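re: ur msg from earlier - yeah i can do the benzoic acid complex, just paste it... oh wait u already did. ok heres what im feeding in:
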Amino acid sequence: MSDYNQSLLTSDVVKAFNQSPDPRLNLLMTTLVKHLHAFAREVDLTPAEWMAGLQFLTKTGQISNEHRAEFILLSDILGLSMMVVSLTQARESKSIEGATEATVEGPFYWPGAPDVALGGNIAEGVVGEPAYYTGHVTDVAGKPLPNALLDLWSGDGDGTYDVQLSATPTMQARGKIRTDEHGRYRFWSIRPTYYPIPSDGPVGELMRATHRPINRPGHIHMMVSAEGHVPVTTHLFVADSPFLDQDAVFGKRDSLVVPFAKHAAGTAPDGTVMDKPYYTTSYDFRLAPLPA
Ligand code: BEZ
Ligand code: FE
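and the outut:
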C-alpha cells in the first residue's frame, strides 16, 4: 500500500468513527485512531509485533478478575493513570487550589471496607510494625470538617495486600474512619513498607523485558471525602522509604511524604501500652469545596 493510501486509510477510519450523536465519543475514537495509526507508521509495525501486542492484551484480560486488576496495573506502569490524575488536577485547578494532592488509586482498592471506630486499629493481627496515625480533615481554609470519611487501605509489613494472599481473600488492613466534631482522625495500622508491583503476569513480563524497576515506596492509601467537598484519592508516603525516587508507577508527590517517628515500647499518645517499638505520624488533609 502506498504512503498515500496509508493516509487515506486513516481518514476513512476517522470518518467511520465520526458519526455517533455523541461528540465526545467521536473525539475520543477519531483521535485514538489517528494516534494509533501514526504510532504504527512511525515504528513501521510488523505483523509479528502487532500480534505480540494483541497477545499481550489478551493475556492481560485473561489474568484479570475481581481481585486482579491487570489493566489498571498496565495503565499505572504506562504513566497513564498519573496522566489522568494530573489532567484532572489541571482541569479543576481553580476549584481545588490548596487541596491535598491526588495520586494513583492502583489495582488494590476493594470497596466495602469495614467501619472502624475512631482510634481503632485497621490492621489488627496484621504482620508489621505498629503505627499510630493522627491529623485533621479540613477545608482549604483550614476549617475542620466533622464526619469526613477516610476509606483506608494498606499492604502489610511485608508489602503484601490482602487480595494477593489468596484466590479467595478476606479483607485486612482496610477500614473506614470518620473524623470527630473537630475534624480530627486517629487510627492504628502498620508502618507501610516498599513492595514490588505484581510481576507474575504480562505486566511483570513487560517490566522485565524493558529492564524497569518494579518497586513502589512505602505508602498507605486513602480516599478522603466530606459532604459538599471534592473527594481526593491519595497516599501518604513514608519519608525514609527506599524507592521514593523510583516509584514504578510515578505516583510519589513530595507534598504527600511524611515522617514516621519511631518510639521505644511504652505508653503511646492514646494511652495504649505498647510492648514493642511503634511509630507515629501525622497529616492534615485539605478538601476543596464542590464547585457551585
Ligand atoms: C498500589 O499502590 O497499591 C499500586 C499502585 C499501582 C500499581 C501497583 C500497586
Ligand atoms: Fe499501594
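cool cool. The chain has two domains: 1-45, 80-287. ping me if u need the other ligands too
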